[in-house]
Design a protein that fits this description.
With 235 residues, the chain is an alpha/beta fold. It has a single domain, classed as Rossmann fold (3-Layer(aba) Sandwich), CATH 3.40.50. The protein contains 5 helices and 7 strands, in the order αββαβαβαβββα. The radius of gyration is 17 Å and the shape is globular. Bound molecules: 2-acetamido-2-deoxy-beta-D-glucopyranose (NAG) (2 copies). Keywords: Disulfide bond, Hydrolase, Protease, Serine protease.
Length: 235
């Protein structure tokens, strides 16, 4: 088996290829993507979807398909679990894991009810919940509502709890994720963004709750490539 090493010029390396070579591919792990939905017919994702567990909290059904031009959830899903060896787009970091699409974000505001349903959804099967969303940037202090705060405690992983991965926020130096009650929750692992030069991305928020950083796109640096770029290139 040949693994083509991509982005070998980026340092420090996330050592994804080394993890694969050590036998880790996400097999047996279920990741929910709480976002704008997932294009469930995407040929780079469709084999890695948990069809029985999707949820759409905007249309209130089990089909999380996003409307035209709401592609963030599909991009996030691709980074996590895009299929390998299909000559299509990218390979997800955990290409052996399975995805649950939870469509929470759209053109209207979320509520404590919809957020709590997203956080608690499929808690008995979900291992990791990916959340690249949060309170409005530049807003000041903002905490989850009472239902959402309680939903974080529901369980997952046989009572050990779902691992909620949270974005630090996009407010840059004009905001501070200390004031973000989702990012600073004891139930979330908050991640901030750096560019390919190892510097904070222009929108990165910095605060003690940010436990780690990962690579992300940045203006004038490089953007990330994910499962929707073929569409994007087409215009
Ligand atoms: C979906 O359910 C939420 C409450 O959970 C409600 O506020 C919303 O209006 C419903 N949307 C539709 C399209 O029925
Ligand atoms: C992931 O690893 C497991 C365990 O080694 C293996 O059985 C499975 O085929 C791998 N998944 C893929 C998609 O290669």
């Amino acid at each position: 088996m040949i693994i083509k090493i991509q982005n070998g010029d980026i340092s420090p390396s996330m050592k994804v290829v080394e993890a694969w070579q050590s036998g880790y591919n996400g097999s047996g792990i279920i990741v929910s993507v709480v976002d704008q939905g997932i294009e469930t017919d995407h040929s780079d994702l469709d084999a890695n979807l948990r069809w029985d567990c999707h949820l759409d909290l905007i249309d209130n059904d089990s089909n999380p398909y996003p409307p035209f031009n709401f592609r963030h959830g599909t991009q996030v899903a691709g980074f996590i679990a895009a299929e390998r060896d299909n000559n299509n787009c990218i390979v997800g970091v955990a290409y052996g894991s399975k995805l649950i699409g939870i469509r929470l974000l759209g053109s209207s505001y979320t509520t404590d009810i919809t957020e709590s349903l997203a956080i608690a959804h499929a808690y008995n099967v979900t291992d990791i919940s990916s959340n690249s969303w949060g309170p409005p940037d530049f807003y000041g202090y903002f905490a989850p509502g009472p239902l959402t705060a309680e939903a974080f405690e529901f369980g997952g992983r046989g009572g050990k709890g779902i691992i909620y991965i949270w974005a630090a926020g996009n407010g840059g130096t004009s905001d501070n994720c200390n004031a973000d009650g989702y990012a600073n929750s004891i139930y979330t692992v908050t991640i901030s963004s750096i560019n390919n030069k190892g510097q904070p991305a222009w929108y990165s928020e910095v605060c003690p709750p940010a436990l780690a950083v990962t690579y992300s796109g940045d203006t004038n640096q490089r953007y990330m490539v994910s499962s929707v770029n073929i569409y994007k290139l087409k215009g």
